[in-house]
Recover the amino acids of this structure.
């Protein structure tokens, strides 16, 4: 699932390659492609709207550092916003404090649920 999303996001950033400046038109084109990638990855529409509003707001006021090109700056912005929406920090999971631990696993057929559960059981 994440490989497919990664490929789609990579393709959406190609819109900015070769551009020397982040203009409003460039940002809108890139955001349209990111929206399409997230929709195809079955991300909830409300999450996409909030996420892209934040990205667009920050991208319009973004100053690109000398060492970065606009494409790299936009990728960094999208990455930081995705990290913030997902939760930001890694939290350790201590399943040994109150056994038995109950974990719900959901996913499409062939997504690797059984394999992941077997790995968790070890």
């Amino acid at each position: 699932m994440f490989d497919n999303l990664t490929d789609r996001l990579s393709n959406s950033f190609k819109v900015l390659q070769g551009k020397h400046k982040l203009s409003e038109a460039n940002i809108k084109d890139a955001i349209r492609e990111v929206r399409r990638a997230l929709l195809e990855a079955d991300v909830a529409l409300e999450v996409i709207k909030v996420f892209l509003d934040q990205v667009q707001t920050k991208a319009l006021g973004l100053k690109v550092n000398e060492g970065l090109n606009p494409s790299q700056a936009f990728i960094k912005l999208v990455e930081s916003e995705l990290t913030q929406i997902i939760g930001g920090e890694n939290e350790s999971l201590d399943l040994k404090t109150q056994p038995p631990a109950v974990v719900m696993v959901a996913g499409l057929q062939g997504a690797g649920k059984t394999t992941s559960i077997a790995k968790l059981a070890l």
Q: What stands out?
A: The mean pLDDT is 82. The radius of gyration is 18 Å. Helices lie at 2-13, 24-40, 45-60, 70-86, 113-121. The first helix runs from residue 2 to 13.
